[in-house]
Design goal:
Blueprint lengths: L1 H5 L6 E5 L5 H13 L16 H12 L42 H10 L3 E2 L5 E3 L20 H11 L12 H14 L12 H5 L3 E7 L8 H13 L9 E6 L39 H11 L6 E6 L8 E7 L5 E4 L10 E4 L3
Parallel strand pairs: 1-4, 4-5
Antiparallel strand pairs: 2-3, 6-7, 8-9
Helix pairs in contact: 2-5, 2-6
């Protein structure tokens, strides 16, 4: 992303997966969200990571069939607004996924509510988008109470310019003060949020961006923040000849997750390692890299891509089902037939 913004002649086509392009604010969020679930800085009480699978199951149960298909996947988490009051101890109707020893206390409910909100400043300014509903399957690695190290390291060694190994120890007020310094200095010119892609687009450059809607590490909404920033810069004109974003339901960070996540994007693994991410067929209909090559060389704008879920997440077991990926804001809409076959879906904007 940085390359096409600063050096637009370097590439003719780019596939950018789950880009960490707003690095200053992503790093801040990685610290912030863990402050919310840490003993001394939580607004309520710490939620043990052992609870997150039950949380994922409850959220998925409530939002799974919004898309008309019961498959354990939330197609568009932006339409998922779960009522999680049934996870609380003493709830009138208790979730099937908790009991009296695993339910949330009133203070833990406060913590969960805080995690589910976008990060904002003390004055209400938007700072970063939070993780989406349906990403809870991966919170045991990203919302532990200990910040993901690249986030804290950024503030230690780039913003504060520490020259010896240190541990970041801040509260929310101090974190936001550090973020302000990062915004003002942008050490290393690391952010890649410039929406003016005219030099790249004008020479025929094509940008294919994708993000797993279930990404527990780099929240999926961060790609949509940039998408909207570009749309605003170009006065909401149709940019599909040059730029498309594909959101992948149920996919974690670049690969894995419970959804159909094999479409030839970045993060592919060798067959000997399970073949995660490898496309079902090596052609532009199924493979994002080949679709981008066709886009650049033949002018074929990608209208959809077929993605695959491998049985037991291993390519040697064959496909479990296929789904249709669509350029945002479109999504794969079930039109009838075999729910496990991508041909039963059509791209469209659900109303």
């Amino acid at each position: 992303m940085k390359s096409i913004q600063k050096y637009p002649e370097d590439y003719d086509g780019v596939v950018a997966g789950a880009p960490a392009q707003w690095w200053t604010h992503l790093s801040g969020f990685l610290v912030h969200v863990n402050l919310l679930n840490a003993e001394n800085t939580t607004p309520g009480a710490v939620i043990p990571t052992s609870f997150f699978p039950a949380l994922f199951d409850e959220v998925t149960t409530q939002c799974d069939e919004i898309d008309g298909v019961k498959d354990g996947i939330i197609t568009n988490p932006r339409r998922c607004i779960p009522d999680l009051s049934n996870l609380a101890c003493g709830a009138n109707t208790t979730s099937a996924f908790v009991n009296s020893s695993t339910c949330l206390s009133e203070q833990q409910v406060l913590t969960l509510e805080a995690i589910r909100k976008n990060w904002t400043s003390s004055t209400g300014e938007f700072l970063f988008t939070t993780v989406e509903p349906g990403s809870e399957f991966g919170w045991n690695g990203s919302v532990t109470g200990v910040p993901y190290q690249v986030g804290s390291d950024y503030f230690l060694y780039q913003v504060l310019n520490r020259t010896s190994k240190s541990t970041l120890s801040v509260n929310e007020t101090e974190l936001q003060a550090l973020l302000k310094i990062a915004d003002e200095t942008n050490p290393g010119d690391i952010d890649a949020m410039n929406p003016d892609l005219r030099p790249f687009f004008n020479r025929g450059g094509k940008l294919m961006q994708f993000h797993g809607f279930g990404d527990p590490l780099i929240p999926a909404g961060s790609s949509l923040v940039y998408y909207e920033k570009i749309r605003s810069f170009f006065n909401h004109t149709d940019l599909s000849d040059s730029y498309n974003v594909f959101m992948v339901p149920g996919m974690a960070h670049c690969r894995d997750g419970p959804g159909a996540n094999a479409f030839g994007g970045s993060g592919q693994r060798d067959t000997s390692l399970g073949g995660a991410g490898q496309s079902l067929k090596f052609d532009a209909e199924y493979d994002m890299v080949l679709a981008t090559i066709d886009w650049v060389e033949k002018g074929r704008v990608p209208k959809s891509i077929v993605t695959t879920r491998w049985k037991n997440s291993n390519i040697t077991n064959g496909p479990e089902y296929t789904r249709l990926l669509c350029p945002y804001p479109q999504e794969g809409i079930f039109k009838g037939g075999d729910e496990k076959n991508a041909t039963s879906y059509v791209c469209g904007v659900r109303t």
